[in-house]
Amino acid sequence: MAANRIRIAKDKADLVKSLTSSEYKSSPFQTYADVIAFAASLGNKRKKRLPLGEISKREPGSIDVDIFVSRGYDMAIKLIAIAETKNPQILSHLDGELEAQRLQIFEEYANGGLEILREELRGAADYSDRLLLILISERDSQPRSTEEFDLSKFLF
Q1: Tens digits of residue pLDDT in 127-149
Q2: Residue 148: inside a domain
Q3: Which of 1, 28, 76, 121 lies at a C-alpha separation of 20 to 30 Å from 129?
Q4: Is 51 inside any structural domain?
């Protein structure tokens, strides 16, 4: 990916900062990139995509895409973009405009996910416990198959 950056909305910057670890407290995420990737996945899962509005200039500022790549989140960026557009051309590295569109989709889903997190974490003393409850409720909301697992579909 090119030297682009993932931006964070100014009104969500404090939330992103509070979800990351510091030397004084433990938090559910180690880096800002971890928070943004989780938020984008949550936003995509719940179909909440919000434009960024005003961009955060202070900490946390924009995050270089290479950080997402080094942490393995580049696949999430691509999957979210292709799921949104239904266009495999969005994965092209040769077209800067498509790459910018891919990153914008990711940013907007992250912003939507951060909005969801802000609502769900309001009043929580421990973010880790509340995030675990969110994940459990997402898992439990999945329809479960009542039929037995059939291994015969793997036979040739």
Answers
A1: 888 898 888 888 887 776 666 66
A2: no
A3: 76
A4: yes
